[in-house]
Amino acid sequence: MSGISVNRLEVQLNRLSLKNPILVASGTFGYAKEMQAFVDFSQLGGLIPKTITPTPRIGNKPPRTVETSSGLLNSIGLDNDGLDTFIDKHLHYLLGLGASVIANIAGKTIDDFRMMAERFASIDGVAGLELNISCPNVTGGVDMGTDPKLTEEVVRAVRESCDLPVIAKLTPNVTNVPLIAQGAKEGGADAVSLVNTFQGMAVNWRQRKPILGNGIGGLSGPAIKPLALRIVYQVASKVEIPIIGIGGISSIDDVMEFLVAGASAVQIGTANFYNPGLSSQLVVDLERICEEEDCTNISELVGTLQFPTQK
Amino acid sequence: MSAEASLPGLVPSAQQISAVVVEQETMATNTYRLRLRCPELARQIRPGQFFMVKEPGTNDPLLGRPFALFDIWDENGEPAGIDFGYVAIGKLTHLMTHWSPGDPVQLWGPLGNGFPEPGDGHLMMVAGGIGQTPFLAVAREALGLKTYGRPARPLDVRPSKLTLAYGVRSREFLAGIEQFTMDGLDLQIATDDGTAGHHGFVTQLLQNAIQSETPPDKVFCCGPEPMMEAVQKICLRENVACWLSLESPMACGFGACFSCVVPVRQEDGSWDYKRSCVEGPVFPAERLIFED
Q1: Which one of A32, B91, B118, B123 is separated from A242 by 20 to 30 angstroms, measured CA to CA?
Q2: What is the pLDDT of residue A142?
Q3: pLDDT at position A137, please?
Q4: DSSP B285
Q5: Cα–Cα distance measured from residue B15 to residue B42, given in angstroms and rounded to the nearest whole number
Q6: What is the sign of the dihedral through the CA atoms of A37, A224, A267 and A105?
């Protein structure tokens, strides 16, 4: 990969420095080991392993995924072995891959988040924390990410517990995402990730049953790209906070659409499942775009969308 | 959950491959065999492993689908590609029936652990429906007719007896009988409606074999879940070593998505969800728990 200038793709999201804006989304990349055959990890701007919870979670009953038109509906249920196992069994491997590792954490309470942030603060090597406050399975009814005040509180609690850069990953399943993003900003988030999955459902009408074992799930993939772009654009217009765009990205053109709409970086999600080598390839493609667009840093293209004005 | 102690089905040398359709034939009613040119995969894949297939250039269908190796084919003495069988049952498989020679196909693999060594006793393969496809390569390897993988695993011993018990609903669904007709393989057929072979379930053929003078020492099984559950019960009761190859639906095939989980018994007696793709898809029968 000679000829790739690191500087040109380097991005700064407040305190979080990334060598390029191509990250891989939590829950779509396992613990990276699963992707070793397909991805040149050292190319990636950031790597976000599967969500970690304070204690092990067995996850939801299968079927856990079902394909819908250009999309994937999932209800995995944060199946993971818990914080201790993550630190003992996965972290060492992850930190040796040459990519910034951002730990994605989820808890039921603000204290859960605080406790996990303290643990990561005591470990060298993690580049930042992404707070999963947008998975409806974990809070037992109250989803922190649907309330600007709770979002602010959880972000602040994490900020006070560690010096790591903090990203809040937000749900699109609210009326006004900019309000939630504003809460994250008030709490001290370095960036917001937009968006987690859209709640959805698939039905087998003959059996009178939902197809997923959990009944309801979250929709991802190319089907949600226009929905995610709209939210990225709206938040970028209304809230001054760096955005990491997520939602159905499967090509370099998709990456560029999110960047010009206002995202400073992006995460590749569902595409990792059906084009596992895509993420590292996109870094190469992005370098080419920089060349074509004659920019000295990719950030020059962020938010350059010219919205039509009414005459 | 996903204790990382061992992932026997994680294949570090798996690759994303652009393959090309070479030929397609109808094997039985609604059942097809596709031949693809993909030397990278053909050189590596072993019996019981699988690969993911995707229609390129479309988001619908979006994901790949897992298929088991039927066999590899050679050209000028070198592995040139793979054959696999499928039943046209879903969105992708219906599209696949229209694939013609020259069409591009996206693949990734090889994936999964594959079957253990056949051993030197009586190996009985029990197949239901399209679950027969993994057993052609198993049989050819066990009989020393072909090697798989580079380097091929050394098989110092050969089974003293090799049987394939193959059950389908009706005669018209019997697929690959021509390929399975080979010296050294005892092919036994069962049909639910009695139109060919034994009238009844394939599990009866397993029962008969267990009561015979040369009972199976090992059973490899692949097919619909109720059949595999029945085979598991028989083998556990009769104390016959048995491995089941699961056909769990998968989104990625390589362990990233955590969709293909199955309940697996742990050493301490508890159970945990394990990813069929990277911990299997071939599991010792005694470890699997079948749910409703």
Answers
A1: A32
A2: 55
A3: 53
A4: G
A5: 11
A6: negative
Instruction: Please identify every stretch of chain A with a pLDDT value under 50, giving residue numbers as ranges.
Output: 1-3, 5, 141
Residues on B contacting A at a C-beta cutoff of 8 Å: 1-4, 7, 10-16, 54, 59-64, 91, 106, 108, 248-249, 251-252, 254-262, 272-273, 278, 291
Pick the residue from chain B with its C-alpha nearest to A79: B1
Instruction: Give pLDDT tens digits for A185-197.
Output: 999 999 999 999 9
Q: Give the predicted TM-score (pTM) of the model.
A: 0.96
Distance CA A265, CA A217 (A): 26
Q: Are the Cβ atoms of B256 and A72 closer than 8 angstroms?
A: no
Q: List A163's β-bridge partners, or say none.
A: none
Angle, vertex CA A95, rays to CA A51 and CA B14, nearest 5: 80
Instruction: Extract the tokens encoding B39.
Output: 């030397």
Is the complex ipTM higher than 0.85? yes
Q: Measure in Å the smallest separation between the Cα of A170 and chain B Cα atoms.
A: 20
Q: Judge contact between A110 and A157, C-beta under 8 A.
A: yes
- Domain extents in chain B: 3-111, 122-287
CB contacts of B59 in chain A (<8 Å) are 70, 221-223, 250
Q: Quick one: CA dihedral B60, B66, B70, B72, positive or negative? A: positive
Q: Tell me the Ramachandran region of residue A243: left when phi exceeds 0, alpha when psi lies from -120 to 50, beta otherwise.
A: beta
Three-state secondary structure call for residue A218? strand
- The closest alpha carbon to A195, from A255, A134, A275, belongs to A134
Instruction: Give the pair of three-digit tokens for residue B245.
Output: 């190859």
- CATH number assigned to the domain with residue range B122-287, chosen from the 4 options 1.10.1200.10, 3.30.450.40, 3.55.40.20, 3.40.50.80: 3.40.50.80
A70/B10 CB distance under 8 A: no
User: What ranges make up the beta strands (E) of chain B?
Assistant: 15-28, 31-37, 50-54, 65-68, 71-75, 78-87, 104-111, 122-128, 161-168, 185-191, 198-199, 218-222, 241-245, 261-265, 271-275, 282-284
Fold of B3-111: Elongation Factor Tu (Ef-tu); domain 3 (2.40.30)
Q: Which residues lie closer than 8 Å to A294 by C-beta, 6 or more apart?
A: none
pLDDT at A2: 46
How high is the mean pLDDT in each 10-residue block of chain B (292 residues)?
69 97 97 98 98 97 98 96 97 98 98 96 97 97 94 90 98 96 98 98 98 98 97 98 96 97 94 96 97 69
Rounded to a whole number of angstroms, the distance from the CA of A48 to the nearest CA of chain B is: 12
- Which amino acid makes up residue A12? Q
CA distance A116 to A119: 5
Amino acid identity, position A221: G
> How far is A198 from A218, CA to CA, in rounded Å?
5
Active centre residues of A (catalytic)? 135
Contact A59 B1 (CB under 8 A): yes
Q: Which amino acid is at B56?
A: P
